Amino acid sequence: MLKAVPGTNDIFAQAREYPFREPVFRYITQTAEEVLRGAGAQMIHTPIFEYLEVLQKGVGLTSDIVVKKEMYVLEDRGGRVLGLRPEPTASIVRAYNEHGMKVWSQPVRLFTWGPIFRAERQQKGRYKQFHQVDYEALGLADPLLDAEAIALMVRIYKTLGLKNLEVKLGSVGDPEDRLRYNEYLRELFRPHAEKLSEDSRVRLEANPMRILDSKSEIDQQIVADLQVKPMLAFLGEASRAFHEKVCYYLERLGISFSVDPSIVRGLDYYVRTAWEVHHAQIGAKSALGGGGRYDGLSEMLGGPRVPGVGFGIGIERVAIALEQEGIAIPPDPSPTLYLAPLDEPAQIEALALAESLRPKVSVEIGYTPKSPRKALEDALKKGACYVGFLGEGERARGVITLKHLESGEQKELEPLQLHSLFEGPDPK
Length: 428
Ligand code: AMP
Description:
Blueprint: H1 22-38, E1 42-43, E2 49-51, H2 52-59, H3 64-67, E3 73-75, E4 81-84, H4 89-98, E5 108-117, E6 129-138, H5 143-160, E7 165-171, H6 175-189, H7 198-206, H8 209-212, H9 217-225, H10 237-252, E8 258-259, E9 271-279, E10 287-293, H11 297-300, E11 308-314, H12 315-324, E12 337-341, H13 346-357, E13 363-365, H14 372-382, E14 386-390, H15 392-397, E15 400-404, E16 410-413, H16 415-421
Parallel strand pairs: 1-5, 7-8, 12-13, 12-14
Antiparallel strand pairs: 2-4, 3-4, 5-6, 6-11, 7-9, 9-10, 10-11, 14-15, 15-16
Helix pairs in contact: 1-5, 1-12, 2-4, 5-10
The chain binds adenosine monophosphate (AMP).
């Protein structure tokens, strides 16, 4: 029997692991959608694959995603090289440019949710195909938008019921601040290059800030021993003022956060604001989501200068956090009526009746003919409110036998009477 690729998951109601139960998944995406629509953001769906160039430029040539070959790359029949998206921001900015959204009233605020692909080593909370809710505010370089994005992200988590949240805010400065910081880091790390992990030795020349968020313990020890000054200490006047504005706005909004100088977002195009939201209970893979400002991305994609800020929320991670906090997800509603055919001609009668009632009320049918006792058992298992029997006797009298499962009350109703029973609010 063929199986799914490890690190990919089927999402369905009865899935054994909590993060892959469809009602949990839906609870998260619907809540996020309500919060974001309620704030005036519009939904966008972009393709899950793009020309590789869009995605590579989007994440940056020195990012782990490119360096460690975490992108799924494919070739179409015309020999064009495509990639599966490792994050949605580049696609959304590409769409903004392609559809001339720059002439709309700014900012343009868009959100999406869907699958993301990264060829990472599989472990709990880290998958090859996972899902993100993503929000982007494009076209206005105002710290108010950064604060709003953080507020919306936090509100999504809180609306879901999560409590143990930590918002960590940093700034990666402007490109010129980063040049100065990278020079400082190179000088600091060069004498220790031999001891750094292989990845970090490459990072040392290409993008030394990456060493700071290396997952290698040896690298982390070197970083700690060297007492590396944070990026925040290298901010220029403009990026410092911007950072302070974001902090001030968050305080005004009553959002608790800590300034964490170690926040270095793994993607190349981030400038200024960068943040992560962590959950105290989910251990090492504690990031529930992250976000930041990326004012240079559009130009990298060959478009005009379009400032932007946005975030990505890891849906599976959020599900793990919900499980940890013991937050119960409303179960799927059970049918109001379960219609059971007792003989063969009643099969299509049951389906026709179900279809005529369905706009008003949720109806399931029993499909194969069965005894009234078995039909009753099935209706109870489904959690239905009523069971309706259709058999030879009912056909002869032109009625349906309807039983209310909780009271046990049973009566025969003509189809019209049945329709009027379900005319008002759902009797469930
Ligand atoms: P990133 O785009 O790397 O900042 O990721 C944003 C969020 O997506 C993270 O904070 C995680 O919650 C989630 N995430 C990232 N990579 C994975 C993965 N491989 N599997 C599951 N969730 C992930």
